[in-house]
Design goal:
Elements: H1 11-62, E1 66-70, E2 90-94, E3 108-112, E4 120-123, E5 130-133, E6 139-142, E7 150-152, E8 155-160, E9 169-173, E10 179-182, H2 185-188
Antiparallel strand pairs: 1-2, 1-5, 2-3, 4-8, 5-6, 6-7, 8-9, 9-10
């Protein structure tokens, strides 16, 4: 008589395999969650960085003022009113008449939507919802006392989530218009 060779797993082998898989998943899921949160922060920082570079480049190339401003809630254009915020989104446009407002007919170079869930983007200078690059590529913001005047901007955009300062990203703007990305908690300061 010929004996048939049986192939397959025993119940014990199957249970050991399931246990190993459960341990591997248990160790991997928290790491994946943190990876996703870090990716959201990095993506948000990179999106704002790209808009800043675009604004500066276009201001120099077009020999014109290019403005960045935070969007107002429920609107597609910018607002300098209190209660707006960069996490709602932002607009980059050529300010043809230099009035620091998005008027009909002015070219919109970039319009960015809302930030990822639970990501906050805050400037280090009070309620800074608008600033602009001059034709020389330097960055300025309206003087709070007289909006017809402008002041050199040297500040930081903080990009934070619920995990706090240890995971935050910062975009440091110099008055010359250059932008530097940092993870330094000393430079970033605080998260909202």
């Amino acid at each position: 008589m010929n004996k048939l060779n049986a192939s397959g797993f025993t119940l014990i082998e199957l249970m050991v395999g399931v246990a190993v898989l459960a341990i591997a998943l248990g160790a991997g899921v928290p790491s994946m969650s943190e990876f996703i949160q870090n990716s959201r922060l990095s993506a948000q920082a990179n999106d704002l960085l790209a808009s800043l570079h675009l604004a500066r480049t276009e201001a120099i190339k077009r020999n014109a003022q290019v403005t960045l401003c935070a969007k107002s809630p429920g609107a597609a254009n910018c607002s300098i009113a209190a209660g707006t915020g960069w996490q709602i989104g932002w607009v980059v446009f050529v300010d043809v008449n230099n009035n620091r407002a998005l008027d009909a007919g002015e070219p919109v170079l970039d319009s960015h939507g809302a930030a990822a869930n639970r990501v906050a983007i805050t400037p280090s200078i009070g309620n800074l919802n608008l600033f602009f690059y001059t034709s020389r590529g330097v960055v300025r913001y309206p003087d709070p006392a007289d909006v017809t005047l402008s002041v050199a901007l040297n500040g930081i955009f903080r990009i934070c989530d619920g995990r706090g300062l240890d995971h935050a990203r910062g975009l440091v703007l110099s008055p010359t218009g250059r932008v530097e990305v940092t993870k330094s908690t000393t430079v970033i300061g605080t998260c909202p």
